[in-house]
Amino acid sequence: xxxxxxxxSRKSGDFDWLGIAGEVDMHASPQVRKALLDALQPxxxxxxxxxxxxxxxxSGVACLVxxxxxxxxxGSRFALVxxxxxxLNVLRLARLDKVFTLYASLDEALAGGG
Amino acid sequence: xxxxxxxxxxxxxGDIHWLASISQDFAASLSMAETLDNAIAQIMVxxxxxxxSIFLLNAxxxxxxxxxxxxxxxxxxLSVAAGQGIVGRAVSTGQAQMVRDVAVDGDFSKKIDxxxxxxxxxxxxxxxQVKGRMLGALEVINKRAANACFDDAxxxxxxxLAGVVSLAVHNARMAxxxxxxxxxRRELDLAREIQRGLLPQAxxxxxxxxxxxxxxxxxxxxxxxxxxxxxxxxxxxLGDVSGKGMNAALLMAKTISLFRCLGKREDDxxxxxxxxxxxxxxxxxxxxxxxxxxxxxxxxxxxVRLANAGHQPPLLRHADGRYEEFELAGPPLGVLPxxxxxxxxxxxxxxxxxxxxxxxxxxxxEDGTMLGLDGLQAIFDAHARSxxxxxxxxxxxxxxxxxxxxRDDLTLLAIGR
Lengths: 114, 417
What we know:
- The complex is a heterodimer of chains A (114) and B (417).
- Helix content of chain A is 38%, strand content 33%.
- Chain A has one domain (5-104): STAS domain (Transcription Regulator spoIIAA, 2-Layer Sandwich).
- Chain A has helices at 29-39, 58-74, 85-93, 106-111, and strands at 5-12, 15-24, 45-56, 77-81, 101-103.
- Chain B is 39% helix and 24% strand.
- Chain B has 10 helices and 16 strands.
- In chain B, helix 1 (4-28) packs parallel to helix 5 (152-198) and helix 6 (246-263) packs antiparallel against helix 7 (269-282).
- Chains A and B meet through helix 2 of A and loops of B.
């Protein structure tokens, strides 16, 4: 049984924060994709908290890639925060950890400037 | 008014015969439009009315459009809002509507009369529905005989007719859906055939590179390819497009075509991978990306050169049974332009190099356990004395054992004799 995905968002000063929790598979990824693209405003900063993601397949990775590409075109800042181990393994295997900006914690992300 | 016993009974027997003959027409018909036209003409004559029509709801159930009619004016194609007029009332309430004088019914819409010049005095209308699903309505207008009004017998007959017409419409739609499904099926078959044609032909004689690709669905997002250069070296590649289905298959077709075309011109495989990356990144959609390993093999010297874009590490089985993985890799193709890719080179000797997609290591054996890298190596070991293509066939057989449907596309490439 899949538990699905839970998405929470908040706005805090200079940046938007999006928290994704649960299992991001083929069924959940359209919802994740929409949330990511909706949250991305031109010239903004979006921090995506992946600390509570238990599983992510390639459709979930594609959502992150699309958000990353959209942010780049818009001149927005896009970073992943506190990436849970299962997701980190997937990103490392595909060498996407070299492409995305990753922060260990929210504090680190805020100190990261931008 | 005549008594039911004397007037209705003979008519009813006639009605049943007539209903049966209309039902047979529907059952024998292949064209819904023709059958409805024919039925509505019969209904007009038999029920002694000036006009009859069938209105069907559109897919969104927002408008009712006349699909068949008989009478002085042709209103086929004419639409009204789903809740409009007497026909709309029949559809929204699901009840037959008998209006003996439209002049005193507030819901009557003059729209059609104004458009056509027809003069409606009375209406009898029955909803068309199948299993609680509203399809539209069947309507008859103005009894022909002077001063005649619609009565309960007319309403019962029209409701019976509505049941027959509903089933005919429902069946015709099911038949149309089947035809459409069959058309899509044929298109998928064609796409699969074209995609298979993009993969390399099985080489004649002893060729030191071979591969297999088994799609989980009709079309695949995986691919492999190899071809010989004039100097005798062989260029090979294997890739996996993120996602499944037709969009993955289309990006696969683009990537394999670029690989085949650019691979014949670009000598530096790191630059070849970087060029592929830039080309795919330029038109990337929906975050789709491609993981790919490509390289060259020189049968004369035994030298292998390879570069990896985000794909799982290629696996070298040395002649003595030791395994070596090549971890060096850059990001997948299509994510970010301007990437560089480093090259690994080594002598193959009597070993074999295997490149494969995660559909292989994450595939299931007959007992339901995941194959994994260990399981894959165990199959290679068990068939170490076989040819490379026999080794690949053994992996495919393990993952297809018990007629299990594949979870993911399955693609392997082997380099070496």
